[in-house]
Amino acid sequence: MSTNLQTPIDYLKGVGPNRAELLRKELGIHTYQDLINLFPNRYLDRTRYYKINELQRNSADVQIIGQIIKFEEVAQKRGKRLVATFHDDTGTMELVWFRGHKWIRENLKLKTDYVIFGKTNWFNGKFSMPHPDMELLKDHEKNIQSVMQPIYPSTEKLTNKGISNRVFIKIMQQLFTETKGRFTETLSPELLNSQKLISKSQALLNVHFPQNQELLARAQYRLKFEELFYIQLQLILKNLIHKSKIKGFPFEQVGDYFNTFFKDHLPFELTYAQKRVLKEIRADLGSNAQMNRLLQGDVGSGKTIVAFMSMLIALDNGFQACLMAPTEILSVQHYNGLFEWCNKLNISIKLLTGSSNTLDRKEIHENLENGDLQILVGTHALLEDKVKFKNLGLAIIDEQHRFGVAQRSKLWRKNSSPPHILVMTATPIPRTLAMSVYGDLDISIIDELPPGRQAIKTVHRYDNNRLKVFRFIRDEIAKGRQVYIVYPLIQESEKMDYKDLMDGYASIERDFPKPEYQISIVHGKMKAADKDYEMQRFAKGETQIMVATTVIEVGVNVPNASVMVIESAERFGLSQLHQLRGRVGRGAEQSYCILMTSHKLSNDSKVRLETMVRTNDGFEIAEVDLKLRGPGDIMGTQQSGVLNLKIADLIKDNDILKTARYWAKQILNNDPSLASPNNAAILNTYKQMSKYRNIWNYIS
Ligand code: ADP
Ligand code: MG
User: Fold this and answer.
1) Residues 247-263 pLDDT 10s
2) Is residue 312 part of a domain?
3) How far is the CA of 301 from the centre of ligand 1 (A)?
């Protein structure tokens, strides 16, 4: 009988309750299965021994053969450190321990050959290795399992508590002993054959204890393929089940609201992309299935009107609609924009945010429930339990990346039957990534900007050119334009950032004196009402300069603003820079984005700045961003949709991802319920996965 991989890790010989607790806490390893899926970060070539005189200042892990000559205790700020002098025939170095001195002195032998292994530091003119892994040379030769030694991901705490890489290797070996290295196959024979994949057991053995380079590569390929395959399979299945099981409200007709708006009030000709996306949405809304669609479109591509016209379809069928935005400013702006259109059509619309007063709230709640209110716009406030709709037919979420998956589903549950959902994002996500992260959503893309837009001219200027920049700003203002000046604000250095913002504001006030110039300032510490007041002044053209932190990043729309100055631009991420730049270029005038930096720039900052200067294409920028930051970061760390992969890498392994998706689709096409005996392994694995973890565990 094979070992049950769901066995708690405590039961593995050599682990015990203390280590088990640490493994759970530090690495989330609860079961045998979790441990076997702890894949090495890299491998050490155990045939390679370094000589002390070959060490480089920043060498990675190395192994060295040599002897300890003496021990010495050295006093330091707190406690002592134990230092051993270690030498080989080429030189001398130090081994250092901060803990466990007694044990080490009692157990390590002087003048005896050891193999030491670890990272070396250059300290006080000498190489040293803190807390080395040590093994007697004679044992080492016996113990060697594979020429490539796995190096496991670990944490400082684990290392401090004595769970070294060697311990990891030991317990991993124990796991292979207890399971006899036999693991249930998780892919179908068809897949194994067509993709020339090695078996699960072979792959696991070789990923932990590679027999040779080639087998290691095949093991990694197989495990990456498997990981991506099951994510795709789950996403596609979820989508299929969703479509078949979750009935949506079929919006059968396009009625008066839509038609009247289209005929009489359309403020501009829709772009081809807007029309195509509207058709896609219309088709979803008209079908029996609930819509779950992601609408991607670069800043300024015109998502709002698509959202509004989709709402009109809901209203035409007697349903209510809502639009949720991540910030107060943005929801106010949406509300103001939609209000005008609604007025023309005699549609009732209200705004609900954290700062709505009790009386307004009460009225909104009542009118929502009795159906008098047709459209509700607002912030997170929409998610409150008190907000109940009579018949919510369509929920639109702007700037998805700020809301989590959980919130999406909360909206969902606002009805007896889930409303159609349209999620809009201006963060362009490369399609392949979107596919794997939002695979449960259908995707529409507005890939065309409204006509007549001139490309924004972007330049990079150093701080010492500020006077020239100010002169340029003055000229633009003289032409009647408006200007944003944005300062970074990140939580860790909030105090400093506010100081920079206020200093900047003061100096701008000096250079642009009243009454000739009027300046607005908006930042996160202001009351919502004050922010709104300042925004409104700028939007109405009463002020020419808007000094702000990134609160204006999302969605703010002042077409007359044509200059965006970004201070300390090196501190912003690419997608943030792109979002900020999107605040200008919204009118007919030539717009400019000026990236101000100091002379000190990291290589990554240089790439970001060059990219911004080179292109306005959000998707191209997203690709570069993805390469620089990795997929976890691109949507922000605490945000939705971050895949938590164990071995695959969405960027590097993009080809594997595509193949895996192709096969997942193919298999489900031919055998939607995975009932064929050929697919038994897949069905089993899928069931296991759904039992022990939900797909949303991948998406944190
Ligand atoms: P975003 O996709 O960033 O939310 P918006 O919906 O705010 O973009 O639209 C940006 C600006 O472009 C708005 O001022 C809007 O009125 C205008 N706009 C949208 N679609 C068109 C179009 N087809 N033709 C001309 N202007 C348009
Ligand atoms: Mg928008």
Assistant:
1) 778 888 899 999 999 99
2) yes
3) 6
